[in-house]
Amino acid sequence: MPRSWQLLVIVMLAGTSLARAQQYIGPHALGPFRIDKDVKMNSLLARLGMPPSTKSETFCYRSARGNGFLSLTRMSDVYDDTLAAAVTLSSSRDCVTHPVRLTQEDLAGWKTPEGVGLGSTEEDVHEAYDRPSTVISIDGTNYSSIDYGDLASSDHPPAKPPEIGTKALVYRGSGNDLSLAEFGIKDGRVVWISLSYNE
Q1: pLDDT at position 16, please?
Q2: Distance CA 137, CA 148 (A)
Q3: What is the rounded distance in angstroms from the CA atom of residue 177 to the CA atom of residue 27?
Q4: Which of 52, 73, 171, 193 lies at 20 to 30 Å from 114 by C-alpha?
Q5: Could you give the residue ranges of the DSSP H alpha helices within 130-189?
Q6: Is the pLDDT reported for residue 19 higher than 80?
């Protein structure tokens, strides 16, 4: 093959890799929550159990089956605060600084369209979404996507420290794409999932 053709093939492959790197390849849904289309906050609250007031920014739930915790956050009023912006599903209590409502919803049954949920393996995540944009090591119980707040000053601290895992697999969009998915991993298993389309 002539050198000019080899160079062209290399440039084309590099361009394909760059385009792929700029494209969001993570999940677009977790249970009924979606980031590829608008989901009304009240529709999710009605499904989970309507709180006494719907004016809050974040709402927290624990499954009556004891198999999952969920926090749900609305869009800021700069955009449209009637829409859901983010959800975090975890195997241990999230939302330490917010009231937690009991839900009859089987939260552990919330999965991505590709079947990834709590307890899935790290390999399942890689098979579904390929390599993450970033892998972040986690030390202790401090990670920005998990709202554990100040455990010491909480009125209702959890009986045991929250399970945050040892690393997070992060899938993000680039440029103006606000899509973001994060999977907390411990001992090779998913212990929390955060999915959002929000600044």
Answers
A1: 43
A2: 17
A3: 14
A4: 73
A5: none
A6: no
Q: In 23-134, where does DSSP find H-type helix?
A: 41-48, 122-129
Query: What is the model's pLDDT at position 160?
Result: 56
Q: Which element (helix H / strand E) includes 140?
A: none
Backbone angles phi, psi at 48, to 5 degrees: -85, -25
**Cβ atoms 198, 89 nearer than 8 A:** no
CA 76, CA 85: separation in Å to the nearest integer? 8
Q: How many residues does the chain have?
A: 199
Q: Is the dihedral of CA 103, 98, 75, 112 positive or negative?
A: negative
At residue 106, the pLDDT reads: 93
Instruction: Tell me the domain boundaries of the chain.
Output: 26-197
| Greater pLDDT, 76 or 121 | 121
pTM over 0.70: yes
Residues 28 and 183 sit within 8 Å (Cβ to Cβ) = no
CA distances from 158 to 63, 102, 152, 155 (A): 15, 15, 10, 10
- 28, 52, 173 from 178: Cα distances, Å: 12, 31, 6
Q: CA 35, CA 181: separation in Å to the nearest integer?
A: 10
Q: What is the DSSP string of 118-181?
A: TT-BHHHHHHHH-S-SEEEE--TT--TTS----GGG-SS--SS-----SEEEEEE--TT--EEE
